[in-house]
Write a structure and sequence with these properties.
heterodimer, A: 452 residues, alpha+beta, two-stranded antiparallel sheet, 11 helices, 63% helix, 11% strand, elongated, B: 215 residues, alpha/beta, six-stranded parallel beta sheet
């Protein structure tokens, strides 16, 4: 789901060597603000340690929870800043908590190595980190000061008559001659060193704040067991629904059909008229049973998906929709059947949402499959498999304002795709348009030339 | 009338053979897979082929593909496709060569023997027989679209029955009006859909096609 990220320093971009001065100056201003955070870092680190010392007094526990949470928020902020400067995403490495009890909220973080690495970072940043920022800032400000110094001398010649206390200044050209070479030296040093310092700071932050391999694996295991549990639940619920549908639908109709036929058999001799009516009834029952079975089958695995693959099935979906739906498909080869099915139902659900809620006049569906950069085809020559990802876009020109947490539809899509490590992002400002972006990592196999 | 049947389930195949033989159709061949169907259609050139969409070897839309391939070789070869489910996509593909002589029905329509045999005769005669389910899907979709939106409710009703493949006389009987009234409606429909005057049968197919394309 699209997480509303707290945008710390939103316009910060990755540090490169070829940035215009304006970008660098803006960055200098933004990072200068971070210097002010040094006391906060040190205070948080210090407070955590002293509260830990007092943990045996139960009063300290709620405070400790608050400070730990504060520390994490702070570290997350630095993750974002450092990530932006490095042009990458630095994930939070924290282990998820299993419940909401106070004890868990204290013990959990304390047993998480990430907390201790955070503490180390708060300490390092409060001292060394700030020094790095300050050094860069000092070069810039020093340069600027030298640049304006002649003007200052001209304005208050009596106050600033000595340069560095021992070089007497008595004319404007003299002041310029003394100050500007120094200004140039400062600014040149700033221009050269600022990217190095900033990058080093960000790398230092990453080394302490990013996930370690171990914490990544622990989180992955947690995610997988969660999505597996959801998948199993969903499947069980689905099977129950199918059982109920069959029991109340087709099975019941067949029973009724048997009864009608039996009765018809009985009255055939005595009352052909009644027998005929019973036979008509039986025929109607077969039609209804078949219609119900058809609906059921469509819900399990739509026949057109089996026939024509994802592209054909989505086109059939668009044709059957009461709304004009434009379909654009760029998926070479066939995807694994479970992925096709998940993608189909996700698109179907998204289109249903458009029809039900958006009031749109037109909808667009775009399916694209792209290999991961650098992925090479592997597998047997007859059936080459390439790793990549499938992106499903469903857009409409409706009223927008869709709430991802509002209905069960989007949640269902999320669950369906979650089993494949897929994601759903909804962008739906008030007034529209709504764009639902779904992504599924999956392999594609090159089309088989002859069905065996 | 000479018929070729393609159906992989023996029970249904025998049922179809019995049903059609009982109504004076001569069953030339009954096959159970796609490649055999294509061969049989091209050799026998029957007056009608009754084809199940899903056939071996792939158990996907093999029957439909074979039917379309056969029509490419034998233009206008009348084909009645039967299926457990209907898709507009398939109806469109069947009709896309604009030659008529096409039917697309749910398998359960066979249980109404009279209507089914009627549909068989109609398709063999170059007409169309679209399942009411296909038409229903279309109506839900095209309620607002031009030029179909320009049809009056009465004309839409005629259009629906025409798409199912009924003759003017049958439509008149169904709607409790005179045949002349129906033919007035059909002429209005042709005009609104911008179909130039030509042979009536062909225009009917084109009208149905416009309808199916949701143009």
């Amino acid at each position: 789901m699209g997480t509303a990220r707290t945008a710390v320093l939103p316009r910060l971009t990755a540090v490169t060597t070829a940035e215009p001065a304006a970008v660098r100056l803006r960055r200098a201003g933004q990072l200068a603000g971070l210097i002010g955070m040094a006391p906060v870092c040190l205070a948080t680190a210090g407070l955590t340690v002293s509260l830990l010392g007092m943990a045996w007094t139960w009063v300290a526990l709620p405070l400790l929870v608050a400070v730990l949470a504060g520390g994490r928020a702070l570290a997350d902020g630095y993750r974002e800043v450092a990530g932006a400067l490095l042009g990458e995403h630095i994930e939070s490495p924290y282990r998820p908590l299993h419940d909401d009890r106070l004890v868990t909220r204290v013990i959990g973080p304390l047993r998480d190595p990430a907390t201790w690495r955070d503490l180390a970072w708060l300490w390092v940043n409060g001292t060394l980190g700030v020094a790095m920022h300050a050094a860069a800032l000092a070069l810039l400000l020093g340069g600027c000061w030298q640049l304006v110094l002649p003007a200052v001398w001209a304005a208050w010649p009596d106050t600033f008559h000595d340069y560095y206390g021992f070089l007497p200044v008595n004319s404007l050209p003299m002041a310029v001659l003394l100050a500007w070479p120094l200004a140039a030296a400062h600014l040149a040093a700033w221009w050269k060193l600022e990217p190095v310092l900033t990058r080093s700071w960000a790398q230092l932050a990453r080394s302490l704040l990013a996930s370690t391999e171990r914490s990544r694996l622990i989180r992955r295991v947690h995610e997988l067991s969660e999505s597996r549990a959801e998948t199993v639940d969903t499947q069980a619920a689905e099977l129950r629904r199918i059982e109920r549908d069959l029991h109340d639908g087709a099975q019941a109709r067949l029973v009724a059909l048997g009864m009608s036929l039996g009765l018809a058999d009985e009255v055939m001799e005595r009352d052909p008229q009644a027998a005929r009516a019973l036979l008509a009834e039986a025929r109607a029952a077969t039609s209804t049973a078949l219609a119900e079975l058809r609906d059921l089958v469509r819900g399990i695995h739509p026949p057109v998906l089996a026939d024509r693959g994802l592209e054909g099935a989505v086109q059939a979906l668009a044709l059957a929709s009461p709304l004009p739906v434009e379909v654009q498909v760029d998926v070479p080869g066939r995807l694994p059947a479970p992925v096709e099915s998940a993608a189909y139902f996700a698109v179907a659900e998204a289109i249903t949402n458009v029809i039900k809620h958006s009031g749109a006049a037109t909808a667009w569906v775009r399916l694209t499959w792209r290999p991961w950069p650098g992925a090479t085809a592997g597998g047997r020559a007859a059936n080459e498999v390439t790793d990549g990802r499938l992106v499903l876009l469903v857009m409409d020109d409706g009223c927008g304002g869709a709430d991802p947490n509002g209905g069960t539809g989007l949640r269902g899509i999320e669950r369906r795709l979650g089993a494949f490590d897929g994601t759903v992002v909804v962008s739906s400002p008030q007034g529209g348009p709504t764009v639902v972006t779904m992504e599924l990592p999956c392999a594609s196999s090159s089309p088989r030339t002859s069905p065996s | 009338m000479r018929v070729v049947i393609a159906e992989d389930l023996a029970l249904l195949r025998d049922g179809l053979i019995r049903l059609l033989t009982a109504h004076d159709f001569e069953v030339l061949d009954a096959v159970d897979n796609g490649p055999a169907l294509l061969r049989s259609l091209v050799t026998h050139r029957p007056d009608l082929a009754v084809v199940d969409v899903r056939l071996p070897p792939t158990f996907t839309d093999e029957g439909l593909r074979a039917a379309i391939a056969a029509r490419a070789e034998v233009p206008g070869l009348p084909i009645l496709v039967l299926s457990q489910y209907v898709e507009q996509l398939y109806a469109r593909e069947l009709l896309s060569d604009r030659a008529g002589g096409v039917g697309y029905l749910l398998k359960d329509r066979v249980s109404d023997v009279g209507q089914f045999v009627d549909a068989c005769r109609r398709v063999a005669g170059g007409g169309t027989a679209m399942d009411p389910d296909v038409i229903g899907q279309l109506l839900a979709r095209n309620a607002r679209n031009e030029p179909l939106g320009a049809l009056t409710p009465r004309e839409r009703e005629v259009m629906e029955l025409m798409a199912e493949g009924r003759s003017n006389a049958a439509i008149a009987a169904r709607m409790f009006v005179t045949e002349k009234a129906v033919s007035k409606h059909t002429n209005n429909i042709f005009a609104k859909l911008g179909l130039p005057p030509s042979e009536d049968d062909n225009r009917r197919v084109l009208a149905v096609l416009t309808f199916l394309n949701g143009a």
